[in-house]
Design a protein that fits this description.
Number of helices: 15
Distance between the termini: 33 Å
CATH superfamily: Alpha/Beta hydrolase fold, catalytic domain
Structural class: alpha/beta
Largest sheet: 9 strands, mixed
Strand order of the largest sheet: 1-2-3-5-4-6-7-8-9
Number of strands: 9
CATH architecture: 3-Layer(aba) Sandwich
CATH topology: Rossmann fold
Strand content: 15-25%
């Protein structure tokens, strides 16, 4: 393992500012609902803030206070944060981010989990950047989908000296965590999820009305909001040229998802600060990893998280439902195939739970593990 510090060259920051200043803007209808996509007035304001006010160096210095490392596994250089929990026997917890997020989503979650609670429980936190995301290197050949990443994570935990461990995640992090629970049942002691995306056949018990409604809602969402996933799942390289060349295009593509998926009621800063949003976008920009991050959608099609009829995953699962999460099945749907031991309905929050509601997410993680104890 090698210690790692973020160090973006001054020339890269100057290039970003020049590109933002020279953006060629399209016309826009500026519809209130963003039904045509990211509004021009919002994006122009965000890009102006990025160029004139946002301080990358301050964000970089703050992130560099986290203990970061890199290590080589299966030909990839993996970036990760590793913090030891306080107390005599911390629980190792591997937390995985998703798209269009990054490891910075977990920044406020860290002190809430590494400190001991009233029972003395704390967590060792391992927070990697997905291959082709952030400061991890890009896969150079097809095949690095969520199932393959789960196997890479298992090797990472071996390198770090953890024979057994728990997992947590949302978005792709939830899918990868589920793969870990499914493929490594003797090593993964428990999985806590804040998104549920496994496809489960009904088996001998037909879907009930709540389950049928959920599946209909998923189909409706894919028809109305899923175009990004179809593009990224079929032709990610074509999309990547524009997002890699234009910071305004990158900010427009990512910020639209933060608005749609967070519990912000159409106003991103009510849920996530613009500086946090820009730190996340800046990592995609400075690393040049946006195109490789898109490919996980295409890679996932080769190994979808679809269970077999009658299959049961024995690993204890905890789930917390934030109200504007994309996929929120009824508990009975998950119980067709998973050992659901904890299920919570949250009063507010969305897809980016660790950014939006870190206290609520941390409290739910702790409650799940107390229940297992």
């Amino acid at each position: 393992m090698n210690p790692f510090q973020i160090a973006i060259p001054d020339a890269d920051i100057a290039d970003l500012h020049a590109r933002l200043a020279n953006t060629r803007w399209p016309e826009d209808l500026n519809d209130d609902a963003w039904s045509y996509g990211t509004r021009a007035d919002f994006l122009k304001s965000l890009c102006d803030h990025w160029r004139t006010t946002y301080d990358w160096r301050a964000a970089e210095a703050r992130l560099n206070r986290l203990p970061q490392f890199t290590t080589a596994i299966d030909g990839l250089i993996l970036h990760f944060v590793h913090l030891r929990g306080q107390g005599p026997n911390p629980t190792p917890l591997l937390i995985t981010h998703g798209w269009p997020g990054s490891f910075i989503e977990m920044e406020r979650l860290i002190p809430l989990l590494t400190a001991p609670d009233a029972t003395g429980r704390s967590f060792d936190l391992i927070i990697p950047s997905l291959p082709g995301f952030g400061f991890s290197s890009r896969p150079t050949a097809p095949g690095c989908g969520p199932k393959a990443i789960a196997a890479i994570w298992a090797k990472l935990m071996t390198v770090l000296g953890y024979d057994t461990f728990a997992v947590q995640g949302g978005d792709w992090g939830a899918i990868i965590s589920t793969w870990l629970a499914r493929d490594f049942p003797t090593r993964v002691t428990a999985a806590h999820l804040n998104m549920f995306a496994a496809s489960i056949p009904p088996g001998d018990t037909p879907y009930n009305d709540a389950e049928e409604t959920y599946l209909a809602n998923v189909r409706r969402w894919r028809d109305t909001e899923g175009a990004y996933g179809i593009i990224q799942g079929t032709k990610p390289q074509t999309l990547g040229y524009g997002l890699t060349d234009s910071p305004a295009a990158l900010a427009g593509w990512i910020s639209e998802k933060f608005r749609a998926w967070s519990d912000c009621h159409g106003d991103i800063p009510t849920a996530i600060s613009l500086d946090d949003l820009l730190t996340n976008i800046s990592i995609y920009w400075f690393t040049g990893n946006i195109t490789s991050s898109l490919r996980i959608y295409k890679e996932s099609r080769a190994t979808p998280l679809a269970l077999h009829a009658g299959e049961h995953v024995p690993t204890p699962i905890g789930y917390t439902h934030f109200p504007t999460e994309i996929f929120n099945p009824p508990r009975c749907y998950a119980e067709h195939a998973f050992n659901i031991r904890h299920w919570t309905e949250q009063p507010k929050g969305g897809h980016f739970a660790a950014l939006e509601q870190p206290e609520a997410l941390a409290a739910d993680i702790r409650a799940f593990f107390r229940g297992l104890s």
